[in-house]
Structures are given as structure tokens and as C-alpha cells.
Amino acid sequence: MRAVAVYRHGGPEVLTPTEWAAPAPGPGDVLVDVAAIGVNYHETYERSGLYPRALPYVPGRELAGVVAALGADVTGLAVGDLVATADTPAPGAYAEQAVLPADRVVRVPGGVSAEQAAAVLLQGLTVHALTQDSHPVRAGETALVHAAAGGVGLILTQVLRSLGVRVIGTVSTAEKEEAALQAGADEVVRYTEVDFATEVGRLTGGDGVDVVYDAVGGTTFRGSIASLRPRGTFVLYGQSSGKVPPIDLSTGTRGSIKLTRPFLPDFIATPDELRTRSAAVFAWMLRDNLHVRIGRRYALADAGTAQSDLQQRRTVGKLLLMP
């Protein structure tokens, strides 16, 4: 079958279109004909070697597709079901087919397409954990959302606004500012033109925000801490600009702050957690009109271009590979 493999660590150029042995489902597995693949920062961390992984491998952890075959002892699923997954041990999503543990896939409800499922599930699960667990938000709070026009940022902004939270978003371009505003951001700061921490201070009358959601990391970390109100919460859930520097919490300019580093697998560790949170994500789409913006679709062989565009912040919304 056609796939994209990583044979050595490096930049996007190491993503190699190749022929890969077609998988076969074992007991408890399902074979899925892949219809759409989500492109995520996690794959870039593995590809670079930041997150160690044995070579060679087929990357990718988020996909949607149709069940083509069932392994022994699989119940609750049938051939022809549209299913999706967002985090399995090693799904190898960058391929025409993938074998997945049956208890790590979720059935996609009617009214949600394969593309929508692949575009929303990982980011939606992340947003659910961020807003329900990392910092359970309350109406009337103010949140700072970095990368507000990214895949997570656009969903996070919509969900926060639906919960009655004021959202200050940061973006880099006029196009991304418009996307963040359309998602419901109350104010948008172009961090390429002004110091975002100073601007947040102005927008909050010097009080700071209740929570910062930061997937950028290295370049935003100190400004994020400075943007918090006393007893505020800093949620670091990514590091697209690199690792965060050390911080001396004994000399911070904000007092009594909380810092947390959520890791999605910890919040979907059991099949019941995965199903419950996935149902909530799909309900946001079907009941609450959550809009999932697909920024661009790429051929499977163009996975390197997709990852490069993601890392260079050249797109708005979710990127998909199409086998």
C-alpha cells in the first residue's frame, strides 16, 4: 500500500512516500481504509527526534475512515462503519490503510463527514480536556488564547465563548486575525506588531487574565506568565516555538499562579473516557454548531509540504492529508 515513512530524523524532507506492507488486523483490532488524515504538531516532534521513536515508522495519530475488516473478538463495530481515532500507540495514519485497536476508535455519528472527523477529533478532545480539566472555565472569566487561528485555537475560542468566557487571541497576520474574530474572539492581538503581554495588561485594566492557553511555548512563555492575574492558571499544551525556559517561581511578577502541562493521552486513557469525550466533541458540532475550519488538503505524498506549512504558520485552521 502507499504510505509515508520516516527512515531518519530531520526536517520535513525526511517524510518519504513509499510502498509499505499492508497491515492485517489481529484479535481486538480493526482494519480501516483511511479517508482523511489530520496533520498535527506531534508528528513534527517525532520526525525531528524531539519525541524519540524507533525507526523506520509510518507517522500519524489522527485519521477517519471506513472499517474494512474486523479481527477476532471485536464487538460493537461492523464492516462499513465510519470511525475515527486521535491517539493510539502507533496507528501509522499516513497511509492508505491502518490497523487500530477497536477500543481506541470511535464511531462517527451521522451528519459528520470523514474529513470533519479527522479535522476535529484530536483538537476537540484537547479542547475538552483544556476547558473541563486543566482549567475548568467559568462564565465571566477572561482567557488568553495563543495561536487563536490554529486548529486548536479556533475550536478553543468557539467553545470558550459558548461558555461565557471573554477571549483575547494572539495571531500573526491580518488573515488570521479575521479568522479568530469570526470564531468569536473578543479582542485579537497581533504579536508580530506589539508586545502581547503589554496589550493584555491594557485590555484587562492591569488585572491580567484568569487563564492562558499556550501551545507556542518558548517564545511566549514569559509573556504568558506576565499576562496572568494573581491566582491565574497557565496551561502549556504545546511547544511549537521550542521548549520553555526555566522559570524561578519564587520571584514571579504574578503571585499564587498555577502551571500545568496536560498530555492528552492521560485524559483519554480508558475506552470509556475516549468515548465520552468524543461524544461531547461531536455534540459540539451537531448540537452547538461548532465550525471546524479545514485550512488545506494535501495529497498523501505531499506530507512534507503539509508539515512545513504547519510549522511555518502559513495556513489557517486544520490541515488534512488525503490518501
Write up what this structure looks like:
The protein is built from 8 helices and 15 strands. The chain has helices at 41-48, 114-134, 151-162, 174-183, 196-203, 221-226, 271-286, 303-311; strands spanning 2-6, 15-19, 29-38, 63-70, 82-85, 97-101, 106-107, 142-145, 166-171, 187-190, 209-214, 228-236, 258-260, 294-299, 318-322. Strands 3, 4, 5, 6, 7, 14 and 15 form a 7-stranded mixed β-sheet that branches. It has a 6-stranded parallel β-sheet with strand order 10-9-8-11-12-13, sandwiched between helices. A two-stranded antiparallel ribbon has the order 1-2. It has 2 domains: 2-112 and 293-322, Medium-chain alcohol dehydrogenases, catalytic domain (Quinone Oxidoreductase, Chain A, domain 1); 121-264, NAD(P)-binding Rossmann-like Domain (Rossmann fold, 3-Layer(aba) Sandwich), CATH 3.40.50.720. It is of the alpha/beta class and 323 residues long.
